[in-house]
Structures are given as C-alpha cells and as structure tokens.
Structure prediction request, 303 residues.
Amino acid sequence: MVIVMNIIRMSGGIGNQMFQYALYLKLVSLGKEVKFDDVTEYELDNARPIMLSVFGIDYPKAGKEELIRMTDASMHPLSRLRRKIFGRKSGEYHERSADYDGEVLEKDNAYLCGCFQSERYFKDIEPRVREAYQFRNVKIPGHIEERIREYGRQIEACASVSIHIRRGDYLDAADVYGGICTDAYYNRAIRYMMEKYEDPHFFIFTNDAFWAEKWCEVRERETGRPFRVVTGTNEETGYIDLMLMSQCKAHIIANSSFSWWGAWLDASPEKCVVAPEKWQNGRECRDIYTEDMIRISASGKIR
Prediction:
C-alpha cells in the first residue's frame, strides 16, 4: 500500500513557523496527511528556537526513514548507483516565489520547502488558525513576570500602538532588508496613528533595546506622546513580545513575519495596521499584505 503524504520543512523563527503551521492546517483541511521535518534546519548552530509549543501545539513529525524516502537520499550502494545513472527522484518542492503559490496545495508526496508567507494559503480557514494560535502555554520567567503583567495592564488601559523595530540580524542582511523601515517610514506611521487616535501610547518591540531607548527619547520630544520600550525578553522568550504585541489596539509593523503575526493575532475588526510598502529588496512580495494594511514607503509616503 502506497502512503500519500507531504512533509513541510520547518525553518526560521516563530513567525516563519506560524506561517508553515498555518499551511499545515490548510493541507489537513484538504484531507492530506502532513508531517513536519523539524530537524534538518534546527541542527545548525545558529538555529532559532522552535516555539509553537506556546500555543499548545503538538505537530506530527516525519521520521528519518520517511525523510530519506521523500528526498531520495538513501546511501545504500544500489540507490547511489541509480541516482548516478538516472538522477535523483526527490519529492522536494520549493515555493516558486515570495508570493502565493497555488501548486503547494495541490502537491502529494512532496517535501515542501519555503516560508509560505501569505494569508491566501489559509484565509478560508481563518477561524481554525485563530483557534490554534491561542497563547495556552506561555511561560514567563519569574524575574520579569511582574514587569510583563504591568505591560499588559498598560496596553489594555490605553490606545496602545505596537511598533516593531528589527535591528540585529537585519543589519547584517541589509542587502535584503535594509532601507525599508526607515526613520521616515516610522515617523509617518506615528503621525498617521496620532491623526487616527486621540491619545495614542506607543509600545516598542525590538531586538535592540539600548538603541531604541534613545530613539524613543527623540520621538517623545518631537510628538509629546509617550513611547515605551518593552524590555526583559530575549531570543528564547520572544513569544512574550508576540503576545503583548497582539494585545495592542493598533500596529506599526516591520518587514518581518514576527510583527506580521503580532498584528494578525489582534482579531479586533477596528484595529489599524501600518506596514512598509516594500517587504524585501529585489523581490516582489505582493501577497504578504492583507487587505486592511496601510502601506507607507521608505520616504514616508502613504500608498
């Protein structure tokens, strides 16, 4: 009996993992058997932590033999000889671009590789995705527990606007991500929120808190509005930032799947989301945007 199954190769941080798991939910809704390869990418020294457990998610994992069979990677002498003569017969399929690729949903016996960063993959099962992404298993370290709870109280009590500023790894990959979320972008997005809300309070989520504190001092002087950098979390506890971000009333996101999900998880129909007009340099990313997003260019122009 031939078993028809797809395997999704998990990769990246929690934002990418969430897109990949949302694709999994869609494929399962189509009646397909799907498992994850959560080993290959995460054996690397610089691998990001797998964080889907904060949602109480327990996903099916592909075994070593299943991966070998799917990718035609057996080291048996006869298999190696056959590949040398006839070529590899791998089920590996890479999404064709950064945009929605409908073929992904049609594949069987495929090893699916990609980020799948589009709501189009799962828009028709949105309630199922929102149900999956409830913060059921969030562990807050004791030394920051009261601080995180206070952030939550403040976010709930005001017209809270999340701002995501991603530096660190994005500075190292400036050829791909640089020159997009500029000061002009953030300044115009902040003004937009000030025009929309009577008394906005801005909460900054970033991987460079020291830099962001100085950045916020300038914005406070210029706008007269309160800016607060959310601190205490790190790479291992980034899901706390995601949770707090989702509780804000409005969102200024970076060109990052992390803040994309922070805004998307806010289910309020009244939310406002501002996004950079460009997502990556040298690559079209039309389908990353949702219908409700206000797009602002690097020069500060609203699209």
Summary: Residues 119 and 126 are 9 Å apart (CA to CA). The chain has a mean pLDDT of 92.
